[in-house]
Structures are given as structure tokens and as C-alpha cells.
Specification:
This protein is of the alpha/beta class. About 40% of the residues lie in helices and about 15% in strands. The radius of gyration is 19 Å and the shape is globular.
């Protein structure tokens, strides 16, 4: 039976704003979500950043979630993780990507969060997602050196180039031609399959165009403008709630089951479970509607998929890799 992977970016409240002070009140809204997952036999992976990992209330929650079969992984926001080395005139405002920092600073920040989480939860970190979806070969190699087994930063068909970090930089990562299923990465080129110990598990995203049309638009210089326009008019469909896509998510899950996909990966931010914690769900009635959608989605998903953490899915893929 294929796997339903739930990944939660577990972080501060409303990081879409550029407030100087980051709060983590959304930790108090995590228990109902964990209970919902347990009721359907699903096992979320809480990808946790430095700020949330430093919160005693989350540590208590996380330890209980681990006992219930969940996983704690690592999530990293470069501007809010020690050592604090200014990259711009105001990192809290510009939110630079980790891959924009020097290599030694990248490694120090990754070490800081990894050691914090391992100390708080008494377990080695195995899974990771980059803050703001920024990932590259240097980042991947550091994760391997630190013992990580899984990354889930890739968003197939999506480019973050238009989303700036450092104003003098080139923007975020471009995943528009990356695989849309799990693969062990080539550490020399993370878009390619390789033989490294790091498994990439892309978020489940459906392309807005059929494959041949998408490739033709992307690779034809005169038609690049058309490719960008199509992406804006017909955006890719994520297995990620936005308050209006309940039926769409059901379609993604059913289509994946029909195609014989071995996993789907759902994602959400912890702050989206709290009214006012995100621009997507600003009111209590919005989060109530979110839970209504989640109940229906999880019920349907449980008919086709079994629950697993990222670590558990890695173990399955690793065993298959050895056989092949």
C-alpha cells in the first residue's frame, strides 16, 4: 500500500510578515492536528525551526508526538538561526536564503539547529526541509555530512526566482525541471538521480500543463514569456490547503492512487492551524473550514494510502534501492 506523508513546517507565527519579533503561539494549536492524524493512522513529520525548537511547550508536545509515532525533523530559516551574521542591511526584512550565505556560515547554522533538536528530543535528525524552499548542491552535501537521510525541499514545476532574499541575489531556487517523485540525489547536480545516501522526496504538486507542452514552452526561447504567463494563469496544484482547494486536493489524492504512485506528500505550516497565524486562515471560521477539509481529505486518503513518517518512507526506498 502506498504512503501518505504529512509534512508540517513547524515555525513561528505569520512569518509572511516582516515583524522584528517572532512569536510561536501556534504551538498551542498543534495537539488537535496531531489527534486528527492519529485518528486516521497517519504519522506527521514536524519539520522544526530554531525558534520553535527553543519553545518548551513545543518540546513537550514533540516528545509526546514522537511516542505516538510522529517524527521531528529540521527546518531552517537562515535569518533567524544563530550565528547571526548580517547578510543585508536588514535580514529580518529581506529574509535571505541560506544558500546566499558563505559556505562556513551555512554549515554553522545547520549545525546549530541540528544539535538543538537532537538535544531537546534525544533522537538524531533524519529529515529536513529548507526555509523558503532554497536548496542547492552545497546544502545537500552538508546534510549528508550531518547524517540526514531525507530532504523534501523540492517543489516540482515551481520556480522561486521571482522571490528575492538578498536584494542583490538571484532569487530563490528553480525546480521547474526537477523530478516529481522520490529519488536519491546526485550530489553534483541535485536535479539528477544518483547514488548518494540522501533521498529527495518532492512535495506533491501537479503540473498545470501536459508534459510535452510544458517542456516545449520552457525550452523555446521565444516562448519563455508564454510559459511564465501560463504559470500565472494556470498555477500548479499543490497537496497543500489554501481554504479553497478541498475538492482539488481530493482529486490529487485519487489521481495518485489510480496512477499507482507510491506516495503523496501533503504540506502545511504550523501557523496555518492558528486563526490569524497566516494570511491564508485569518479567522477562526477559516481554520474551522480547514479542519473540515482535512477530515474529508484524510478520510479519502486513508482508503488508498497508509501513514508513514519521512524516516519510515526512507527505510522503504532504501531497501528497494538495495534490491535493485
Amino acid at each position: 500500500m502506498p504512503y501518505f506523508l504529512i509534512t508540517i513546517d513547524t515555525e513561528g507565527d505569520n512569518l509572511w510578515r516582516s515583524d522584528a519579533v517572532i512569536h510561536t503561539e501556534n504551538v498551542h494549536f498543534l495537539p488537535p492536528f496531531q489527534q486528527l492524524c492519529e485518528s486516521y493512522g497517519f504519522k506527521p513529520t514536524y519539520l522544526t525551526d530554531y525558534r520553535m525548537g527553543s519553545n518548551p511547550a513545543f518540546v513537550e508536545f514533540g516528545r509526546n508526538a514522537l511516542k505516538a509515532g510522529a517524527e521531528i525533523g529540521m527546518h531552517l530559516h537562515a535569518w533567524d538561526t544563530p550565528p547571526f551574521i548580517g547578510l543585508t542591511e536588514n535580514d529580518s526584512r529581506f529574509r535571505p536564503y541560506l544558500i546566499e550565505y558563505p559556505l562556513d556560515v551555512m554549515e554553522q547554522k545547520i549545525t546549530t539547529v541540528t544539535e538543538l533538536l537532537q538535544d531537546r528530543f534525544g533522537t538524531r535528525m533524519a529529515s529536513h526541509r529548507a526555509g523558503r524552499w532554497s536548496f542547492d548542491e552545497r546544502y545537500a552535501r552538508i546534510l549528508v555530512e550531518k547524517g540526514y537521510k531525507v530532504d523534501c525541499s523540492v517543489t516540482p514545476f515551481i520556480s522561486w526566482r521571482r522571490h528575492s532574499g538578498n536584494p542583490t541575489g538571484k532569487g530563490g531556487s528553480d525546480y521547474s525541471d526537477f523530478p516529481n517523485n522520490a529519488y536519491f540525489v546526485d550530489l553534483a547536480d541535485i536535479r539528477r538521480r544518483g547514488h548518494s545516501p540522501l533521498l529527495e522526496v518532492p512535495v506533491t504538486i501537479c503540473a498545470p500543463l501536459p508534459g510535452l507542452a510544458r517542456i516545449a514552452l520552457k525550452n523555446s526561447e521565444p516562448l519563455r514569456w508564454a510559459h511564465a504567463a501560463v504559470q500565472r494563469i494556470f498555477p500548479a496544484r499543490w497537496l497543500r490547503p489554501n481554504g479553497q482547494n478541498g475538492e482539488d486536493m481530493l482529486g490529487i489524492v485519487r489521481d495518485a492512487a489510480q496512477r499507482g504512485s507510491d506516495y503523496v506528500e501533503f504540506m502545511l505550516h504550523s501557523s496555518e492551524l492558528m486563526p490569524g497565524g497566516s494570511p491564508t486562515f485569518p479567522r477562526a471560521e477559516d481554520t474551522e473550514a480547514l479542519y473540515s477539509d482535512l477530515n474529508v481529505l484524510f478520510k479519502v486518503a486513508s482508503q488508498h494510502f497508509q501513514g508513514a513518517t519521512l524516516q519510515q518512507y526512507y527505510d522503504v526506498c532504501s531497501a528497494q534501492e538495495r534490491v535493485n
